[in-house]
Amino acid sequence: MPELFGARGLASAAGISSPALRGVLAELRGRARGHLEKFASCPDAKAGRAAAAFLPVSLCKGYLRLMEKVGYEPYETMIRVPQWRRQWCLWRAARAIK
Question: What is the DSSP string of 8-52?
Answer without folding.
Answer: -HHHHHTT---HHHHHHHHHHHHHHHHHHHHHHT-GGGGSSTTGG
